[in-house]
Specification:
Elements (H helix, E strand, L loop, with lengths): L2 E5 L2 H4 L14 E3 L5 E8 L5 E5 L11 E2 L9 E6 L16 E5 L7 E4 L5 E4 L1 H18 L4 H39 L17 E6 L5 E10 L2 E6 L5 H11 L4 E2 L2 E2 L6 E2 L4 E2 L1 E5 L11 H17 L11 E7 L4 H4 L6 H5 L2 E6 L14 E10 L3 E2 L2 E3 L4 E3 L6 E5 L15 E8 L1 E10 L28 E2 L23 E2 L3 H6 L5
Parallel strand pairs: 1-4, 2-8
Antiparallel strand pairs: 2-5, 3-4, 3-6, 6-7, 8-9, 10-11, 11-12, 12-24, 13-17, 14-15, 16-19, 17-18, 18-26, 19-25, 20-24, 20-26, 21-25, 22-23, 22-25, 27-28
Helix pairs in contact: 2-3, 4-5
This protein binds 2-oxoglutaric acid and fe (ii) ion (FE2).
Amino acid sequence: SGVLRTEVNPEDLIGDAGADGPIKKVPLFNQSPYRLVVYRVLKTDDGAEELRILTSSEGVVPGAHVSSRVGIVGTVMMVQELPDPETGKCVQADCQKSAQFEIPQGLDPEVIVLPNLQVTVQDATIIAQQKAQEALQHCHDANDNLEDCLLQATTASLKHWNAEWRFHEYALKYLGAQVEDYVCNDDDDYDDEPMSTSPPLTTFSWESGDYIAHPVDVLHARPSSQIHVLHDFIEPEECRAVQEAAVPGLRRALVVDDQTGGAKLSQERKAWEAAITIPWHVESRHHPLTTLSRRVYDYTNYVMHLNITEHGQEPLKSIQYHGKERYHHYQQTGMNQEEEESPDQYLHHCDGPCRGGQHKVPDRVATMVMYCETATRGGHTHFRNAGVHVQPKAGMAVFFSYVDPQSMQVDTGFTEHSGCPVLEGHKHIVTQWVRLGVDKANPWDSYDALGNKKETTTTKTETIEMQQDVQGQPEEEPTTRQETQQEEHAQPEKETMVLLQQQQ
Ligand SMILES: O=C(O)CCC(=O)C(=O)O
Ligand SMILES: [Fe+2]
């Protein structure tokens, strides 16, 4: 009959993103009175159909709700009655009844085999369409004012799903916060293996302008948020160039003081940093700083399909965290003993806005954190809401973006991250925060902390990295901890300047 049957081990198929595209574990609900065998239908070169059995020898018994092993998105499937393994008998005389169907690409498809062995495939889109149709029909039948009736129906439904969504978001963030403490602070567990980098969803290779291939692991991919690990991204020579350029400008990282609006030292962000200005005028001579910086913008543009240039962007930042040896660095900063003993770290924060809504100029849209030197204990980078962990390696980089370049919708918190406490050794990173909408005439520092254009052009003085707590959240919105907002930039006040120490 032109049909070929081969047995495959279903375990081999599941989770394998092969040439057929992603394989989803699609639930199948058998509402028919028949024991079912499920096949994948393949067309061979000569036009024949090849059937691959996806179910076990027992098949799917009537009433069973099997939650895996049966669905391969985008391919044709078939169900057929399976004879009773013991009696060899079918409910129907000939055992031949079968139905073919296709698993659609979409959200959470579910296959339902109806009593007459007809198959319906539902997914979120189809269900939404059905619901809309039902509402329309209801309002039509009720002879109501159609507009009012539909408004009422959709409002009720949206309210319900919004509440659901908020609950899940709360649960996710709560768990993320719990896990972060466990993941970051392995204080007492000297014997424990440090947590390793999360497994990639997909991998690819990116070729930089100098024709070098960089392996990329995609750890998180959503329209408004991406987290990528790039291997062999920063060269030792480039790290040395940053380190050298940082020496004269190294100072304690500061955060915004909510009381005064000025800058202050904080336990939330304990680090040393220096702004590195890129000598673009020597780009043609392959200066390590220009080569590095160009690579950062090239990669950002490659993954986000944007045309961001270096013009008007923030300077590159050299950021350094110290382990036990930090006492030496802090002696003169005026911190008390307790503060001196707490480790260098960068507690959870977002680099740009991360509360949804539309992107607005001149907000940040992406970050490249490049690891030059890693701590011997601690100092990992953790994205607690995305469930993504990064164990740094020298030369590696983590790229994350927090806006959907198509819709310009901003991330809702998946890219919130922490630089875990550095317990032993030194950690040296190079960070570029990338903005969208800045240019030569409108550089990032021509805007104030609220994103408004500054009235007068201020004289260019030293700028500092800041971070601000968001105050006044709606009471009914459950959060485990006040989220930190974008690191803002402001001129340090006179008193604060006194605290800034130059490293010897
Ligand atoms: O230190 C880290 O791992 C993270 C650094 C960071 O969050 C930043 O530079 O914005
Ligand atoms: Fe950050």
